[in-house]
Amino acid sequence: MTAPDQTRPPSTRPRIGVTDTFMGMPSFPEAARDALGQTTQRRNLAHATKTIREKRAAVVAELDDWEDLRRAAEAIKKRALIDLDVLLEQFERTATAAGATVHWARDAEEANRIVVDLVRATGSSEVVKVKSMATQEIELNEALEAAGIDAWETDLAELIVQLGDDLPSHILVPAIHRNRSEVRDIFAARMGDVGRPAPDDLTDDPRRLAEAARLHLREKFLRAKVGISGANFAVADTGSLVVVESEGNGRMCLTLPETLISVVGIEKILPTFADLEVFLQVLPRSSTGERENPYTSIWTGVTPGDGPQDVHIVLLDNHRTDVLADDVGRDALRCIRCSACLNVCPVYERTGGHAYGSVYPGPIGAILTPQLRGTSSAVDKSLPFASSLCGACFDVCPVRIDIPSILVHLRTRVVDEKRGPVPTPEALGMRTAAWMFADHRRLERAQRLAARVGRLFRRKGHIGALPGPLSPWSGARDTPAPPAESFRDWWDREHGDNR
């Protein structure tokens, strides 16, 4: 392994151990342009996000203390990040005392090696998986496949993505870009290749699709000796892990196998078990629009004779400590993966998740991915600009992450990183504007010049295509003609020197 180039800024160095599935993708504007042309996907997204938004709004409105809960969740996560080193060591002690084995992984490569070795030690050639963003982030499935181990996704949406050789496009609903007809075709074509086939008379009725998935997965649940999960929360004072879900597949993966391996980002730590009381209220309401999750699984180490008897926890850094070192950017680590910000984002609703080039799409992905992966690639350096800064994401965030402020912070970083001895046309334009606005006499002369230009286009009302670097801007919109008279001149004409 080659050491990173220490002469380059940390955010632009190649990230050792960071996954490369999305590397080489075009910048967000290019990918978004292609996504905008996919009318079926746009229709699916508009319908799904609208439904989830309405459900969330209804259950949040039931609570008079919703804003107090948000502030409590924010305070708990802030404290956890401040005391992260202490809490992680406490978690290791309590989890180990309860019978679990705790492993530490600096990056994706180390985490994958740990998990592959643990699975190989069991002699098993397959695993069943609970939906996990952390394992997607490190591309664990690909690492297991390279080692000759089959990894079966058991979450319905993840199953659809896996069978369709697709990529997830939403944090909560990875197959949100698919409709029922597409799911039916995927099940009919692919289920038989990897297990029990779909019924010959399968329709796109949701009940029939869910039944086909249950029958397909059941044999895998009953056969698998190893389960792999992530965790929504890790509790420091008890050594417990928590997974919340809606389908029950997670409960099957967490209880039936003999060995359970959980890959957990270090930011998932909560100080105390009592802290769960807040998060088990804000998370389901923000994510699925439910008052509580249908399945909340909490386990602590090993219970003799009940559930997995060989329990492993892999605590994953993978550049989270780099994010923690940024006084502004670290707030992204408060994220509890509810996806509320995706469901209200006007940009995400129209482009979908694939355009973000990451397993973390939407507003949270636009601030988290460039910090985890750096900004050396076209897609990563463009993500902080994948927003209109409308602020809707902050309004719905259950832990009050100020995503717009972090986006602006990261935009500044991207601009600073590409500064060179020769200023860009944009930089020259800004310097010229700063010089002009610094003296009212210069501004007045510029306004009078603009007024003369405006008179030339008085009948047309707008200017056509602009030259040079301004052409992309004018190619998508009309450039309004400057007014024939500035406000300053109008005031002088009407009021004389009474300024």
From TrEMBL:
Positions in coiled-coil regions: none
Pfam short name (any one): LUD_dom
Region (Disordered): 1-21, 468-499
Protein name: L-lactate dehydrogenase complex protein LldF
Ranges annotated as biased composition (Polar residues): 1-10
InterPro entries reported for this sequence: 4Fe4S_Fe-S-bd (IPR017896), 4Fe4S_Fe_S_CS (IPR017900), FTHF_cligase-like_sf (IPR024185), Helical_ferredxn (IPR009051), LUD_dom (IPR003741), LutB/LldF (IPR004452), LutB_C (IPR024569), NagB/RpiA_transferase-like (IPR037171)
4Fe-4S in keyword set: yes
Keywords: 4Fe-4S, Electron transport, Iron, Iron-sulfur, Metal-binding, Repeat, Transport
4Fe-4S ferredoxin-type domain sequence ranges: 326-355
Stretches with biased composition (Basic and acidic residues): 486-499
